[in-house]
Amino acid sequence: MTDIEDLLELDAVDAVIVATPNHLHEPHVLSALAAGKHVLCERPLALTSAGVERLLAAADRAGRRVMVANNHRFRSDVQALDRFLRGGELGNVTGVRAGAYHFPRDDGGWRLRRAEAGGGSFFDHGIPLLDLALWLTDFSPLTRVGAHMHRAAGASAVEDGMLVNLACANGIAMSLDVSGAYVGQEERWWFEVLGDRGSARLAPLRVVKELNGRPFDVSPAGAAGRESTFIQSYRAELAHFFAVVRGEGAYEAPADQVTVHRIVEAIYRSADEGREIRP
Fold first, then answer.
1. Regarding the domain delimited by 92-196+259-273, which CATH topology (the fold level of the hierarchy) does it fall under?
2. Can you tell me whether residue 141 is helix, strand or coil?
3. CA distance 204 to 190
4. What is the number of alpha carbons within 13 Å of residue 58 lying toward its C-beta?
5. Which of 61, 111, 178, 188 is the most buried (most CB within 10 A)?
6. CATH architecture of 4-69
7. pLDDT tens-place string over residues 42-73
């Protein structure tokens, strides 16, 4: 089947997964909701915050569930980290440092065209890091947004690297560093949370806590020996979506994605204008 409209006409279909090019997410999700289907959409849900708001309104009118495939939230190591943070094990969170360095793409295509992709390396690799950082820190309001990007000239060009600094109202400072043109021996991904009484990093999960004035490794036993957290996260994400569709799982509309996209818009504005933005 090559036409989404043909798929959506099937009465046997209760839910769909949208994993089309970025610029098609919004129209495809709208079509699915109008046809009475529940939707799991790959990130980004839309290219803009206004687009996300339109989809949330459409889902509400249709009485259907729409979820965003933020799979990092479902990772077992992230769930464990969240428990450490909720329990105050690291003290007050003071910062998040995260990044992703990936080799250049050699396939061309829509990801290299701004109107279709929405952006380059930050849209691909930065938004997942941003969402995870905000989710783990309870979406504290931002006070300052600063960004610098490297992007070739031309209206359709996308950035191949971006460095972002965010300041939160509660004092947390976040730094996100992404590259889609990395020249190195291996690709890299990192995520670390800093607290005033400890720190924790992912892939694999390592937790260090201050005890009697000294740092101690309190990482969960076997954290490095489990299956790939990425593979596990996709399975957990799908299981949750199916449970939501069947009415067996708790559902919360992804209104937080409006906040994510407003921050993304401020990030690109800061990079384009070469100045700090105060949301």
1. Dihydrodipicolinate Reductase; domain 2 (3.30.360)
2. coil
3. 10
4. 23
5. 178
6. 3-Layer(aba) Sandwich (3.40)
7. 999 999 999 999 999 999 999 999 999 999 99
